[in-house]
Amino acid sequence: MTKEVLDGLLSDLQEFFKNDYSGHDYNHTMRVYKLAYNIAIQEHANLEIVSLAALLHDVDDVKLTQSINYQNARLLMNKYGIDKVQEEVIAIIQDVSFKGNQSKSPSTLEGKIVQDADRLDAIGAIGIARAFTFGGNHNRPLYNDENPVLNMDEASYRQHKSSTINHFYEKLLLLKDMMNTDTAKELAYQRHQFMKNYLEEFYDEIEGKK
Ligand code: ADP
Ligand code: NI
């Protein structure tokens, strides 16, 4: 991908995400792109495919658009004459956005990397900020005395109204064991430790201990 194509794509994405949907905005896309790119270098993956799939991974998200057959990603790739790798990129977006079965791992290295980057963005300092933003947008309490609900399927989970702290136990603390690549496992481990430290501080402060 040339610099001109990348710059053009970035400005198109900025326009696309300008109505800022909680959690799936332009900045999320940029973070996933940068992370995926860095992981791809470590893992010796195809940088063009990883870059395109990361940049386009959310443009056909059902929560954002009523897109059919990944039309937004296809439209953008056609605009820049990206032809040869188009189907490979679409296949990755399809795998990464697949929600029915959380254990589904993309079949190519490039797909595994984009999925890892998307999941890494849900943990660590950014993950904590996104979780509380989501909670605020959905009128959820920061914490309560309910127990976390484990092993709920994706569709039911979306209906379930957990406190944001419970979301850590239901999802965020489980993500480090779902990484595909060694590079992402290492990054996830660091982010995981950071979240655990954060939770310890949080409980101490709730109890007025600090
Ligand atoms: P994705 O499409 O990437 O799976 P989601 O819409 O499930 O994204 O989540 C977007 C962001 O909101 C993520 O950072 C996620 O952790 C957070 N989030 C999702 N559900 C909850 C919840 N019940 N409580 C707090 N944060 C949530
Ligand atoms: Ni995403």
Question: What does this entry look like structurally?
Answer:
The protein is mainly alpha-helical and 210 residues long. The chain has two domains: 1-100, HD-domain/PDEase-like (Cyclin A, domain 1), CATH 1.10.472; 122-210, Methane Monooxygenase Hydroxylase, Chain G, domain 1 (Up-down Bundle), CATH 1.20.58. The protein has helices at 3-16, 26-42, 47-56, 71-79, 86-97, 109-120, 124-137, 154-159, 164-170, 182-206. Helix 2 (26-42) packs antiparallel against helix 3 (47-56) and helix 3 (47-56) crosses helix 5 (86-97). The longest helix has 25 residues, at 182-206. It binds adenosine-5'-diphosphate and nickel (II) ion. Nickel (II) ion binds next to helix 2.
Q: Which CATH top level class of the largest domain fits?
A: Mainly Alpha
Q: What structural class do the secondary elements suggest?
A: mainly alpha
| Total of DSSP H or I helical runs spanning 4+ residues | 10
The CA-CA distance between the termini, in Å, is 51 Å
Determine the mean pLDDT: 93
Write the layout of secondary structure elements.
Elements: H1 3-16, H2 26-42, H3 47-56, H4 71-79, H5 86-97, H6 109-120, H7 124-137, H8 154-159, H9 164-170, H10 182-206
The protein binds adenosine-5'-diphosphate and nickel (II) ion (NI).
Domain HD: 25-123
InterPro entries: HD/PDEase_dom, HD_domain
Organism: Sharpea porci
